[in-house]
Amino acid sequence: MEASINEIATRLRETMGPDTTLVSLATETLKHLSSHPSFPLSLISIITGDCTFYLKIAAATYLKNFLKANEEDPSFSKVRQQVRNSLVQVLLQVEPRLLSVLVEAYRLIITRDFVKDNSWPELVPELRSAIQTSDLIGRAANMQWKTINSLTVLQATIKPFQYFMNPQLKREPIPQQLELIAKEILSPLYVIFHHFTEQVLLFQDEVNLEAERILYILSKCIYFAVKSHMPSALVPLLASWCGDLLGLLDSLNLRGPTSEDWWVVRMKIGKRCLQIVCALVTRHRKHADKLMPRIVESVLKLVNQSHIISELDHLAERVMAMSFDVISHILETGPGWRIVSPHFSFLLESAIFPAMLISEADVSEWNDDMDEYIRKNFPSDLGEISGWREDLFTARKSAMNLLGVMSLSKGPSTVDSSTRLTKRKKGKKSGKDKERSCSVGEMLVIPFLSKFTVPSDVDFRSSSASHDYYGVLMAYGGLQDFLKERDPEYTKTLVKSRVLPLYGLEGCSPFLIAAANWLIGELVSCLPPEISADVYNALLKALIMPDLEELSCYPVRASAAGAIAQLLENDYEPPEWFPLLQVIVNGIGDKEENEASLLFQLLKTVVEVGDEKVAIYVPAILSAITGAILKHVPRVPVPWSQVVELGFAALAALAHVWDSAIPDEKDSKLCKEWRSGCSTIAGMFSALLQEAWLLAVQEHADYSISPPSSCMEDISLLLKSILKYTTEVTAVVELKIFELLVIWADLIADWHAWEDEEDMSIFDAIKEAVHLHIRCGINGFLIRELPPPPAPPVSKRSIIEGFGMFISEAMEAYPAATWRACSCAHVLLHLPRFSFETEGTKQALAIAFCKAAFSRFLDIRSKPVALWKPLLLVVASCYMCCPDYIEKVLVQDENEGFTVWMHGLVCISARSFEPGLSSDSEIKLAVITLTKLVKHLVGLASGWALEAARECFESLLEAAIHLKELQDEDEDDGMEDVDENESDDEIEEDSEEDEHEETEEEFLERYALAARELGSGMIEEDEGDVDDETHEIELGDLGGLDYQRDVVSLIKEHQHRLAFGRPIRSELISSFTESFPECVQFFTALC
């Protein structure tokens, strides 16, 4: 083992060197050495040995990765117990810089051995002993274990229990491992926690960093223990724990020395204290009610410092925000309301409102990082929220949330609070059961905010006027739910008298206008229709606000864009759409990336809401939009930036609304204008893609480099429009359709980022490309062409081969992609332009599709599911194209694979199969395939083949009857559909009236049932896309076959051979002869 340790250490050193070749060789060697059972123990020996710190870090990191990769390896299980025991020994004494890495490795083991399997009974006693004899607790000389390390191991052991383990249970019992830890370790540790708490509180002038860290780790342990469960051993000491925790909370100095380590740790302790309090109030009410007065006392002290928010660093502000959140949670309980309500005036005037006021930090952030300012203060659907959740919920947002909760408050609950608060509604609010008492919003909040008058032009010379009114606007934003319960006229009056006048002030502060924009966006759902026009005009004015000399007005325009989007999505329609489109398009062209991104998103929203009303303007605005996008497209083949992606998304929306606005054929003038617009759109889209794809590649003179596969969904939709609107051969050349398809086919051939919605337009574009090839013929579509130099990009394959690779892989993707892929496979296989020269391409496609479809079928054939149908029908199409090749492929994929497919086809052809063959083309493909199969099997003249032929023949008769009935049916069911829709509307209205409020018990039972169904496989992943189940499939020349003639010919020619074995069911023959009376004479031998 010694030689192994030395070799591993050497290779680890080599992985840290600058020589990439040596690094690769060392990595491969380590991978080979890791197969030895003693490998993890060797790594632990290196960590504890006499070597450099960097080598120890490398060994610890490799150990963590090794444990993660070999969790289920049988060879590791042999040494697993030895490794975990050695790892714990190392953890208890290792230096701090190694501790964090090794703890991650320990968590991998603890999750399985202790949490899931409960197969480590000695862990808790040994860990208790290690803590008791550690250096800062045992206080004896030469202590082996470190207290910080042992408590860190305890924290890692408890952490998995912060979540519920079994979602299939309605009420999960407390895990016995957590109960054991609480009894044997946490409860005895209170004495230590209390000792160190007294120490740091009594001697605040003396810094004791080790004591602070011990308190921090123990507070995390308590939080993990009570976040979901309440161990019984903690209940007797809960008041004592909370008393010390709240004492630490009271000691926080939010404006303390932020650069000092002890202050940072103390702030983290405060944060954990608040998280524990939140868990107690929201999860363990019966234990928290008696503690609420003391909790409220502590958090009120913290929120009383909200006037210094601008001076706080991020950690201190987070503590402030959580303090507001704690009050919000307490206020939603009956006992909590009684405790907090006497402090409402104090909260509003001294805590909440000061947090709303604009500060120097806001002004600084506006100037230095406008996007961060917008994200924190004015989040909207247009601005994608990113980053940590805690970064978004600032103290101002938490104060705003508390104001909303407080405003809705009408007094203590008269029913069981825990039941009331956990009710979840399945429908909209009915508006019934109005409370008789006035809300705090009416009695206190609105009167307080009304004291601040709308500033006048003169007032704006004073910074205090803007300062205070900014707070008023932000406070109104927190009253959204309160205002929803008021009459719309109430909100109308408030907006007209308190918000809209700001837009008419000369030189109004951009900070106020931005806040007003955001406020309007928040209150849009509360506004009556008659005020919408005034609001829209004000927002449109703000959307074009120019920058000031020393101040950018980008946040004003961004908040206006978000509010306009909200207004439009709430069913407001501008009197004219074109002015709004002009403002947006003109703004996109001369703005930076971030602002252009917002405007592209707004444009997309306008187009989707306006729909056919904006369609007529599409050709007029396309040129400016494509030009704006190209400004941001890089000239190197790298992934495109967000602004480019959003630009293409806006173009895709424009393409969709234009395509949906096809005029009535009776109006020749409109039809002519629409066709002219189609040509314009196709030309602009083509020019855009040429410059984004072709020119970028040609500039580098390296045609082996492909452009990035960015925006594939939207680009595929644009390409579909180009293909659809191209009707002449000359346009194919002018628009460089072949060149675009070459690149696109290569991109989708290597497509692996499967997303349900994103892939749909790719399938649609493939079908449109096939239709264009049928109309006009595209050179190189079926066979790869090598044009003479200088040449456009040369593909590694023909266009149709690229399509085939994409479709083959799609059959292995998610169910909806499988449906669409199978539909496209039929389109390609039955392409009418295949010739003798391209027959090889057709055979290659058939073989590839057959392999992919049959492989997927084998994966799911254990029980009938919806995906059987499309997969087996694809194999049927492949078989009809080249039966000999396909039979060989099926046998190669699985022994008796041909028989497996044949039985599957028989199964889905039966009317009892769900979902069965439903469209004319599906049944016809089954009929002609079964006809061919019967002929083939009868010709083999063996007993097995004749029996199989009889099985296929019975299925053929049933499918032929089904097809004949379908073709004879009257499909004019429009009036019935209308009646059904009307009745559905009535049912929906009734259901809204009969609203049901889901209780906590019902909610828990519903989710537990869903978890059980997922666990047992009752919710079937492979059910597929219901919309695709009834789609017609394209059969090409097969669709023109006279199936009746072929079936009659088959029966006439092979009736005696088909009489082999058991007789055919008489009722089946009777039904068939009724549908095909000309066949009566042939069934004598078959009865």
TrEMBL record:
Sorted UniProt keywords: Nucleus, Transport
Pfam families the UniProt entry points to: IBN_N
Renumbered residue ranges of the record's region Disordered: 410-435, 966-1002
UniProt key word Transport: yes
Gene Ontology MF terms: nuclear export signal receptor activity; small GTPase binding
Compartmental location: Nucleus
InterPro entries to which the protein is assigned, alphabetical: ARM-like, ARM-type_fold, Importin-beta_N
Domain of life (superkingdom): Eukaryota
Composition-biased stretches (Acidic residues): 967-1002
GO cellular component, one term: cytosol
UniProt-recorded name of the protein: Importin N-terminal domain-containing protein
